[in-house]
Amino acid sequence: MTNIMMASGLAGFLLAFQADLFVPVSGPADAAPAYSDIVAALGQDIRELEIGSTLRGNANAGTRLLVPEKCEKEGEAEAYNYALSGDVEEAFLFIPGLCLWIEIGYDKTRDRVRLDSDFISAVLNQYTSSMIYHVHPRGMESLEENLPSFADFITLALINATRMWNPDFDIKHRIVTRLGVAEYEFADREKAKSLLEYYRKTGLEDFEAQNLAYEYMRPQYRRSYSSEVERCKEYRGSIQQKLAGCSPIRTEAFIVTFRSLAPAHE
What we know:
Blueprint: E1 3-7, H1 33-38, H2 40-43, E2 48-51, E3 63-67, H3 72-85, E4 90-95, E5 100-103, E6 105-109, E7 112-116, H4 117-126, E8 129-135, H5 150-160, E9 170-177, E10 180-186, H6 189-201, H7 208-216, H8 219-232, H9 239-246, E11 249-250, E12 254-259
């Protein structure tokens, strides 16, 4: 499967595009077929479906965790609980219309998680209003570790590029950390669309996502973001207060908006 790597540190900037194969496992559990009917990609998934009652870590690469009947606020609070106690990064796709959370990560470590991009693409082709979350584990103490890395912005470009022409498209990207939620997006969506239009006019339509990603990988955009992160450090108070004070972080290419979270009640 094609994959994208999300990293929590600036050192994890390099993106991975490679073919990884999972060994097929047994079919979905008895409770799973209804979700396979609703979300077509689940019916074609080689990972066994595991229905859970709460968002949590999953160390088994052969299973995919589904958490149904959990809407946005409650799911975010449970993701926040994981950020306080988890040992590796996790990633989820949330479908608001279904109140359904789907695990989308694998090959997880403390500072990065790979995304099942083919699976994500299949889900987004069906549900254009969705949210992609990745959750930083405990122990992320620095201001940078509680914000998106620059690699996360490139992941945004790769995932969103081919869907920006759809008027119903609404895909949000968020990270959850021990301090709260940071949502990140293009600062100028129309600029991104104009670049995509240029690629199409010049015969690069089949590679428009890669070209958009390469455009935003230019050093000027990375320097601009690093500069704004440094500016956040000038605010007084705790890291959480600094993040709240400098939010939204706005650069020429991207905007990051931070908000605090409360944990879910056990």
